[in-house]
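Problem 12. The chain below contains 533 residues. Write out its predicted structure in C-alpha cell notation.
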Amino acid sequence: MAQCVTKIQLSISCADLLDKDIGSKSDPLCVVLQSIGDGKWSELARTEKVKNCQSPEFSTKPVIDYHFEKVQSIKFGLYDIDNKSVDLNDDDYLGGFECTLGQVVSNHKLKGMLELKKGKPAGKGTITIIAEEIKDTRVVILEVEARNLDKKDFLGKSDPFLELYKQGDDGSWQLAYRSEVIKNNLNPCWKKFSVSLQSLCGGDMNKPIKVSVSDHDDSSSSDLIGEFECVTSKLMGAQEQAVEFECINPQKKQKKKGYKNSGTVRVKSCKIDVEYSFLDYVMGGCQINFTVGIDFTGSNGDPRSPDSLHFISPNGVNEYLTAIWCVGNVIQDYDADKQFPAFGFGAQVPPNWQVSHEFALNFNPSNPYCAGIQGIVDAYRQALPQVRLYGPTNFSPIINHVTRFASAVAQQKTASQYFVLLIITDGEITDLNDTRNAIVQASKLPMSIIIIGVGSADFKAMEFLDGDNGVLKSSSGEPAARDIVQFVPFRQFQNAPREALTQAVLAEIPKQLVTYFKVLGMPPVNPPQQKTA
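Solution.
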C-alpha cells in the first residue's frame, strides 16, 4: 500500500512566556516529544536556548516523520534553562502544549495557549507551530522515442522498454523509472511520463543519470539493447527542440570494429513542473469531509445479545465503535467544523417502521450532522435500542447520498474539498450492481470509500469492489475512473494494535486525493509559494 510518509519540519515560536529569573528574563528552550503509546512519551528534539527572551523564535527546526494513517500526538514543553545540565528537572517549567501532528499540518500554522498543567494556564504564554514539508516537489515530464534499435528476437523484432537510473553517492546506479514495453517495434514511442527530480538526480541537474533501452523477454532476463549517460540539464535541451543520443551496447562496441550504435534515443520534449503532494493540498486549504454509514441489518444479531456484533461490551466497545474511533480520530483533524453526517442502513425506523437504507443516525434528516467523533458514537449508542434490525444490505443509497455533495463541489473546479465515506458492515451486499454503478460514478468525483467488514462473514463482494485485482466496472461495462475503494476485514486486526487497523484503512487516501486533483489539473487553493518549477 502507498503509505503517506514524509518529513515535516516544525518552526516554533512563543510569546509572553512566564518570567522565572530575578533581575533578567527567562532563558527558554523548547523540548518536542512524541507519543509512543500507553501514556509514554519519547523526546524527539530540543531547540537551542534563547537568552533573556519571553517571546523567542527558535532557529532549531525539529523534523518528524508524518503519517496520514496515524494519530501522532506531540507535546511541546518550554523550560527556563539556568545551567548546563541536560536534566530538565533541574530547570523551571514555563508551560506546555499538546496536540496532534495532523492538527498542525491541517492548520499549517497552529497557535495554542501554554498550560502549566491541564486546565491551568501558564500566564498569557502562547506557542505557535508552523509545519513545512521537506520535499523537492519538482518532476521531470518526458516524451521519449527511439529509432533503428537492434533486433534482438529471433522470430521477431524487439520488445523495447526504457529505464532511467540515478547515480548513488557510492557511484552505483539506482532505478528511477521504467516504462511500458512496446511489442515488436524497433522504432518505439513510449507514453509521456514523469519522474520526480529527487528520484532522478537528487535535485541536482548536473548529476549523472543513465538511460538504457532493453528488449523484454517473457521467459528469461531482458537483453540490453543500448545505453548512454548524460545529465538532466542536457535532457532539458528538449524544451525547445528534440535532443538525440546514441544508444551504445558496451559488449558490441568492444567486439565489433566499426560499431556505431544500437539505435538512437530521441527526447522529444522535456520540462520541469511542480507535483503537488497531499500535504500541499491540505495545507493549501482542502477540507476532508467525513461521513459514516453503519449496517443495521438483522444478520448482526440482537444488540441485547452478547453474540451480536452490535452488543456493547461492559467496557463500552464493539467492533463498530472501534472502527469509528480508529478512522474518525485521524480524519477529524482535517475538517475545520468537525460536523460529520452519520447514517444507518438496513433497519426499520420509527415511527412508521419502514425499512431505510439512508436514515440519519440522530433521526434528524434535515440535519444529520454529529459534533465530532464523540457525537457519532453517542448517536450510534442512542439509535441502537430505537431501531429494528432488518435488511437487506444495500450500499448504493448512502454512496449516492455522498456523491450528490461531492458532485456539487466538483462543479466548483477547485481543490477545496474532498469526501471520505466510511461504511461498516457485517456481510454480503444485496445491491451489488447498483453499488458498482454508484462507485463508478463516484470515481469521477473528489471522493473515497472505505469499507470495514466486521464479523466472520464471507466478504468476497467487498474484495471485488476494492478493485485491487483489476479495474472495477459498472454493470454496463464502464470502468471506474480511478480506484477509490479500500476494503479491510476487521478480523485481521482483532489482536493487533489499534493503529494497525487505522493505517491499513487510511493508507490509500492521500494518493487517491492527489490523483483526483492531479488528473483534473487542479493545484491547491493556496499553492506553496516556495515551490517553483
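Discussion. The CA atoms of residues 21 and 80 lie 8 Å apart. Students who got a different answer should revisit the alignment rule from Section 12.3.
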